[in-house]
C-alpha cells in the first residue's frame, strides 16, 4: 500500500466513475483499476462492487476511503509544516473566496501580494460559503476570504475590513436625488436579492427586515452583476457591497450610501485552528487590510 493507491481510492469514491477518476489522477483507466484491485487483495476485503453501469462502494470501501482522505490530509499537513519552518511566506497557498468578494477584492490586492510575497504561489477558488467551509475543513484549501456569518465558530478568523452596503437604484429613481439614503426611507420598498446559498442574501435580508423592507420575490439573482443589470433595466433596487460600487453614477445605475443604520459586513480570513500556516496568514491578512484601508480612504 502506498499514498498513490490511497489517492486513486479517494478519487474513485468522489467521482464514482473509473474513467473520470483516472483522468483526475493522470493515469490510464486500467492502471487505476489494477491498483484498486491490488489494494483489495492486500487488505483482504472487497472495496467496490463493479457493475457495467456504475461504481458502488461497499461499507468497507466507504470506511477505507474516509480514512484514506484523512491520511492524505495529514501527509499534506506534514509537507506544509516542513515548508513553513523553512520559509513561512513561500510555497503554494490555496485561497477560497465567495462570489460577492472575490471579483471585487482581488483586482485591488493580487498584483501587490504577488510583488510583496514573491515566493508564494497563489491559487484562487470561488465558491459559495458552505462549499468553501467544507473544503477548508477537509484540508483542500489553506484559508478563506469571506463575510463572517454564523457557523464559522470552529475556525480561526482574522478580520480584514468592514464593508458597508450601498443602495443601487435606477438613475431616474427619486432616491437617486439623495446624497445619502436613510434606511427608513426604504420602508415599504422591496429589494432584489441574490438566490439562496449566498451569504450576502441572508445578511441583506436581516438588514431589510429590521427596517421594514421586503424582498422582491419576482426575481432572485445568481450574481451581483445580474442584480446590477436588473437595476439598470429599471426593474428594482438592491444592496451592493462597497467594493463592488464603481462610482456614484454608472451604466444607468445610481449608487448611494445608506445611513441610520449603515448596513455592513465583516470580511475576514478564515483558517483551521490547528494550521501551522498561521504566521503566513497573519502577514497576508495585515497586507490585505492595509491595501483595502488605503483603497476605501481614497
Map the helices and strands.
Blueprint: H1 3-15, H2 18-25, H3 29-43, E1 48-50, E2 55-57, H4 59-86, E3 91-97, H5 102-116, E4 120-126, H6 129-137, E5 143-147, E6 155-170, E7 181-182, E8 190-194, H7 199-210, E9 214-221, H8 224-232, E10 238-241, E11 249-250, E12 253-259, E13 264-272, H9 278-297
General description of the model:
It is elongated and about 75 Å long. Strands 3, 4, 5, 6, 7, 10, 11, 12 and 13 form a nine-stranded mixed sheet that branches. A two-stranded antiparallel ribbon has the order 1-2. The longest helix has 28 residues. The relative contact order is 0.14. Helix 5 links the parallel strand 3 and strand 4. The chain is built from nine helices and 13 strands. Helix 1 crosses helix 4 and helix 2 crosses helix 3. The model has no long low-confidence stretch (mean pLDDT about 90). With about 300 residues, the protein is of the alpha/beta class. It starts with a helix and ends with a helix.
Helical content class:
40-55%
What is the 3D form? elongated
Query: Quick one: how many beta strands?
Result: 13
Computed structural class: alpha/beta
Determine the strand fraction and express it as a percent band: 25-35%
> What is the N-to-C succession of helices and strands?
HHHEEHEHEHEEEEHEHEEEEH
Please give the count of helices.
Answer: 9
Mean pLDDT: 90
Describe the main β-sheet briefly: 9 strands, mixed
Radius of gyration: 24 Å
Amino acid at each position: 500500500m502506498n499514498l498513490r493507491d490511497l489517492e486513486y481510492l479517494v478519487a474513485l469514491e468522489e467521482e464514482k466513475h473509473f474513467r473520470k477518476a483516472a483522468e483526475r489522477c493522470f493515469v490510464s483507466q486500467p492502471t487505476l483499476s489494477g491498483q484498486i484491485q491490488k489494494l483489495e487483495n492486500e487488505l483482504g476485503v472487497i472495496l467496490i462492487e463493479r457493475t457495467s453501469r456504475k461504481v458502488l462502494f461497499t461499507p468497507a470501501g466507504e470506511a477505507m476511503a474516509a480514512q484514506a482522505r484523512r491520511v492524505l490530509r495529514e501527509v499534506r499537513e506534514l509537507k506544509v509544516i516542513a515548508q513553513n519552518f523553512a520559509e513561512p511566506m513561500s510555497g503554494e497557498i490555496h485561497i477560497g473566496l465567495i462570489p460577492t468578494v472575490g471579483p471585487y477584492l482581488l483586482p485591488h490586492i493580487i498584483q501587490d501580494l504577488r510583488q510583496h510575497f514573491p515566493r508564494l504561489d497563489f491559487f484562487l477558488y470561488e465558491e459559495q460559503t458552505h462549499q468553501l467551509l467544507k473544503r477548508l475543513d477537509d484540508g483542500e484549501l489553506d484559508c478563506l476570504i469571506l463575510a463572517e456569518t454564523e457557523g464559522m465558530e470552529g475556525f480561526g478568523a482574522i478580520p480584514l475590513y468592514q464593508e458597508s452596503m450601498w443602495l443601487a437604484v435606477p438613475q431616474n429613481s427619486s432616491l437617486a436625488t439623495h446624497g445619502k439614503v436613510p434606511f427608513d426611507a426604504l420602508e415599504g420598498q422591496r429589494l432584489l436579492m441574490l438566490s439562496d446559498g449566498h451569504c450576502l442574501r441572508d445578511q441583506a435580508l436581516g438588514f431589510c427586515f429590521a427596517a421594514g423592507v421586503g424582498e422582491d420575490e419576482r426575481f432572485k439573482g445568481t450574481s451581483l452583476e445580474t442584480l446590477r443589470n436588473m437595476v439598470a433595466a429599471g426593474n428594482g433596487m438592491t444592496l451592493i457591497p462597497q467594493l463592488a460600487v464603481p462610482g456614484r453614477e454608472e451604466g444607468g445605475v445610481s449608487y448611494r450610501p445608506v445611513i441610520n443604520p449603515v448596513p455592513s459586513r465583516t470580511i475576514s480570513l478564515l483558517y483551521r485552528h490547528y494550521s501551522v500556516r498561521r504566521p503566513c496568514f497573519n502577514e497576508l491578512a495585515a497586507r490585505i487590510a492595509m491595501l483595502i484601508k488605503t483603497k476605501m480612504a481614497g
